[in-house]
Amino acid sequence: MASNVNPTVRRRRLGQELRRLRELKGMTAEEVAERLLVSQSKISRLENGRRSISQRDVRDLCGVYEVEDQRIVDSLMEMARDSRQQGWWHTFGDIPYSVYIGLETDAESLRVYEPQLVTGLLQTRAYAEALVQGALPETSTAEIEKRVQVRMRRQERITAQANPLRLWVVLDEAALKRVVGSRLVMREQLEHLIEMSQLPHVTVQVLPFDVGAHPGLNGQYAILEFADAADSSVVYLEGVTSDLYLEKAQDVQKYAVMYEHLRAQSLNVEASRKFIADVAKLYAD
Q1: Is residue 88 part of a domain?
Q2: Sequence-ordered strand ranges (E) for 159-264
Q3: pLDDT bucket at 111, cuts 50 / 70 / 90
Q4: Coiled coil located at which positions (predicted)?
Q5: CB neighbours of 87 closer than 8 A, spacing ≥ 6?
């Protein structure tokens, strides 16, 4: 469940405000870095919310930007303090995609395209265990269990009684026919997928092979949207060693248009449920 203070979102909002102050001052990140005797990359990381921001950083930047309104300074200092708190996911130790989890925890809606796998928020425990073990063969049993526990905890956003995450998933047919774990695991996973798709805030569509070429051929992506107008939408692209977050309006719009094409080319909701059910029957033998 989302906490009242989400450090990832606080960092992001604070970074956006600091960027706005810099631009109002007409300064480049390089000029600010020179004034503070720090690297330009540090200023960029502070502004994109990918690293913690200390109150000292805020104080120094407000000094450079000549912010005279103490109320603004105090507000930014409070955001900096909040951004250094820990979210629920920090109790699990080092998690490679912790930035994404922080954003997902605070998101109002999520649109996902998955070409190969059932999306994490709709995975059963058995499927998740088999998936992590297969994708990361050199990972220890303890690490596999930690990743699965985190995945199960993330799913609380879907089943929450109050303000659940609105989820729209487009699954390629390959995600249904790639046997992860065993045929029994797959049958249970697809039955779970059908059950979850009946929730009023969850939509699942299948993109069948016979569609041919489509806008999702470049791979998986997710679009996160937030209730607060101050938080711009984010496109998340998962990588092997690092992830990519796109926040520029033109980038988000391009992926949003691609997603609309994917939804239009996919089977409708009822046809998708029937398709999934028919594939599940194949695993009953």
Answers
A1: no
A2: 166-172, 202-207, 221-225, 234-237, 244-246
A3: very high
A4: none
A5: 3, 6, 7, 8, 98, 101, 102, 105
- Domain with 127, as residue range(s), is 97-282
Dihedral of CA atoms 27, 6, 112, 154 in degrees, nearest 10, equals 160
What is the pTM for the complete model shown? 0.77
Q: What is the chain's length?
A: 285
For 243, list phi and psi in degrees, rounded to 5. Answer: -110, 165
Say what angle helices 55-64 and 29-36 make with each other, to 10 degrees: 110
Q: Quick one: which of 57, 6, 9 has its CA closest to 36? A: 57
**Dihedral angle sign, alpha carbons of residues 92, 97, 99, 100:** negative
The phi, psi pair for 241, rounded to 5°, reads: -110, -15
Q: Could you tell me the pLDDT band of residue 210, with boundaries at 50, 70 and 90?
A: very high
- Do residues 8 and 49 make contact, with C-beta atoms less than 8 angstroms apart? yes
